[in-house]
């Protein structure tokens, strides 16, 4: 079905930061086939026309770091020291995670992401075939990786086999809706030999690699003590760092680390909400962005955030860099919007999304800007970035397919998901 | 009309942090007259019963620092250096503010605050009789102060006269819905003699005093250069600091300053969103709270925030203190909830609000927690603080009066307010 959206403000997130007022956007065969002012009789070329007066179209958000099924652990334990939280709360509960739990937990995350305007996301966790199943059903774009941990040796290779199995089953390349990446968890849960092996396999199949990198000062201290070098250097030595690498966090990075990230064209994913809540530290993203490193944005999992709200993450990213760099011009509107859209698409390897332009995939959202917090209307982009609320997302379109319409999810059974998740959470937490 | 709310989770924000599950709350003559489990035939005692299954009742938020009419300047200019922003953008526009603008701008702010669950707030600005008029009409509780600036001398006393006129016209004491405070803007816009005069007048009528205090490092540096002491010490020397004082920001305070604030029992209002966006710095609120200082929360005006979302402010306050103190246990759930409710009520001098308890004013909100981001339900307070969205506020009740029902504002004409504000903003910004 071809579709024409009309009379909206259109934030393109393109190079020039263009906003088209009273714009029209045509969709055909999953792609944007018209962008501009409404012209006479344009509506006759489309099967359906949606009137969007007082509303704003923009590219869907790309949540570049998440662990979808961890919604199951959301609000189970907060305000705790990291190791106490992990060992006494999170790990025991994760131990009880089943395939069924992963499916419903992932579905809950996708439901929340779509409602908040996310059209593509990146994941690393267990039971990823179940997450892939949920993604295939609901229509979200996803880059999925089975979390890899271990020393080297045959007994630890089963996770890599699982990852490759996932790759064969679901990877559809940059044109497809689901991509599969290789996801070594971190330098503190994978031996150097294991990291090297993962790098080798990734190179062979030209897969993206994602890894948690320099998330905390402790990670760096321990890595230097054990291996005599920083996590970034260790990952580089293992051959893991290149333009297909997605490095989450990069909080505790020094000048040499950042130079390596730049040189290798690594994609860095900033997760300000998680870094703040867990007291991990503050990533120097302004510095890295100024160096030309591609910075994307992510929420991290819901148990360390505790929601998957990209609009909140955008604002937090900007405000945090402003206050920490003592510069109110840091991470201005256009820059954070790109971090949350086109930069994320690049990081995940989706080549035709993140920008509104003719020929690109029709991955977009419609925000109802007829609300008090968007008034007065001096600047639509500022209004969304600094005043907006994710609950105002009314339409979500992915590859030209209507996933949400007037706030109602079309591809998922919301009530069922909440019911199943609650049942599973009660089972997991009772004992 | 008496009213019974039933089958809700009730977050009391009392000393013990109690949450009543499947609770009932009765309202009569503006006060809470029943709190507990639903008992047989309880509904017969009330004129109206509202069923709130899967919903959560909590005290309304107290936004303890705001400049309501500054919504008119929202998103007019962002991502700028402070002085450039103030002198080239904000001041020229403020110069064109009229009484009519103040009325509609204040109405917009109140509309937004009520929709997001704020039931009481504090204001300092111009044309405050118009703001008082808007507050009287819409039903919000307010402590209002005419912003005072100047040297000493008869020619500068007209603002104090205006403030006293406002006091006589609108101040109703801690039992009434509108209170009037005396509001010297800051130590850099008022001379010491002027501050002393305001302190004297405030003492005579036992009024609250609000002031911007130590908002930035520059303010402190300039004050020390000019007067040989910090803003806190200068304000104290002028006799401005006591238990009725509301000190906004307190970002750049040292140990001696904090000790003075503690000793004088000053109420400090933390505005993390504004402090971050304007790159003012990070207030040591955890330290001050640990010292026993009463810390309230505010959004500041919409042109430096850029919204009036207290739930966002709560989360930002907690996350910012966690990351900056490198301690994920900093400002835990119960503490930030109190900052946003009962501490704010104390700061503003409203003695019977901020806590849900029999005998207190029925100032409360209902949040629809049947949304993906509140699932699974392990902990209702955590869910609201760390995952919640202000758009989920469905009911707002102030002094027992229904101000919002099922998301619809009863006491204001939302469409009219947006229309008038837009018209005024276009007039102010055109030239």
UniProtKB/TrEMBL annotation, chains A, B:
Residues 56-402 form the Amidohydrolase-related domain. Binds 1 zinc ion per subunit. Its cofactor is Zn(2+). It comes from the Bacteria. It is an enzyme of class 3 (hydrolase). Pfam families: Amidohydro_1. It catalyses: S-adenosyl-L-homocysteine + H2O + H(+) = S-inosyl-L-homocysteine + NH4(+); S-methyl-5'-thioadenosine + H2O + H(+) = S-methyl-5'-thioinosine + NH4(+). The keyword Ubl conjugation does not apply. Its EC number is 3.5.4.28, 3.5.4.31. Substrate binds at residues 94, 146, 185, 215, 300. Zn(2+) binds at residues 65, 67, 212, 300. The keyword Calcium does not apply. Keywords: Hydrolase, Metal-binding, Zinc. PANTHER family: AMIDOHYDROLASE-RELATED DOMAIN-CONTAINING PROTEIN (PTHR43794:SF11), AMINOHYDROLASE SSNA-RELATED (PTHR43794). Catalyzes the deamination of 5-methylthioadenosine and S-adenosyl-L-homocysteine into 5-methylthioinosine and S-inosyl-L-homocysteine, respectively. Is also able to deaminate adenosine. Belongs to the metallo-dependent hydrolases superfamily. MTA/SAH deaminase family. This is 5-methylthioadenosine/S-adenosylhomocysteine deaminase. The gene is mtaD.
């Amino acid at each position: 079905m071809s579709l024409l959206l009309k009379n909206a403000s259109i934030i393109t997130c393109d190079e020039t930061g263009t906003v088209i007022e009273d714009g029209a956007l045509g969709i055909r065969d999953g792609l944007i086939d018209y962008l501009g002012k409404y012209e006479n009789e344009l509506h006759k070329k489309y099967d359906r026309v949606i009137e969007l007066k007082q509303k704003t179209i923009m590219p869907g958000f790309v949540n570049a770091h998440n662990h979808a099924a961890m919604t199951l652990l959301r609000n189970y334990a907060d305000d705790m020291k990291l190791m106490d939280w992990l060992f006494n709360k999170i790990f025991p509960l994760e131990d009880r995670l089943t395939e069924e739990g992963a499916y419903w937990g992932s579905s809950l995350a996708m439901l929340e992401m779509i409602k908040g305007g996310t059209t593509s996301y990146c994941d690393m966790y267990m039971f990823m075939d179940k997450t892939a199943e949920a993604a295939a059903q609901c229509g979200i774009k996803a880059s999925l990786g089975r979390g890899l941990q271990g020393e080297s040796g045959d007994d630890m290779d089963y996770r890599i086999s699982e990852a490759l199995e996932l790759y064969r089953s679901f990877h559809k390349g940059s044109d497809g809706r689901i991509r599969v990446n290789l996801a070594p968890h971190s330098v503190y849960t994978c031996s150097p030999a294991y990291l090297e092996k993962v790098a080798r396999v990734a190179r062979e199949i030209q897969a993206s690699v994602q890894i948690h990198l320099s998330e905390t000062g402790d990670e760096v201290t321990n890595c230097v003590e054990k291996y005599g070098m920083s996590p970034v250097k260790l990952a580089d030595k293992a051959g893991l760092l290149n333009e297909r690498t997605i490095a989450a966090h990069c909080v505790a990075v020094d000048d040499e680390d950042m130079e390596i990230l730049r040189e290798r064209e690594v994609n860095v994913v900033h997760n300000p909400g998680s870094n703040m809540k867990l007291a991990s530290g503050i990533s120097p993203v302004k510095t890295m962005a100024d160096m030309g490193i591609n910075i994307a944005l992510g929420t991290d999992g819901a148990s360390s955030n505790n929601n998957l709200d990209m609009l909140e993450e955008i604002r937090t990213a900007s405000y945090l860099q402003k206050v920490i760099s003592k510069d109110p011009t840091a991470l201005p509107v256009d820059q954070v919007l790109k971090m949350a859209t086109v930069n994320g698409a690049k990081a995940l390897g989706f080549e035709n999304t993140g920008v509104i332009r003719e020929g690109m995939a029709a991955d977009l959202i419609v925000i109802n800007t007829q609300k008090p917090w968007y008034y007065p209307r001096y600047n639509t982009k500022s209004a969304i970035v600094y005043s907006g609320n994710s609950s105002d997302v009314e339409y979500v379109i992915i590859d030209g397919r209507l996933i949400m319409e007037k706030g109602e999810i079309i591809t998922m059974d919301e009530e069922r998901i909440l019911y199943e998740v609650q049942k599973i959470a009660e089972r997991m937490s009772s004992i």
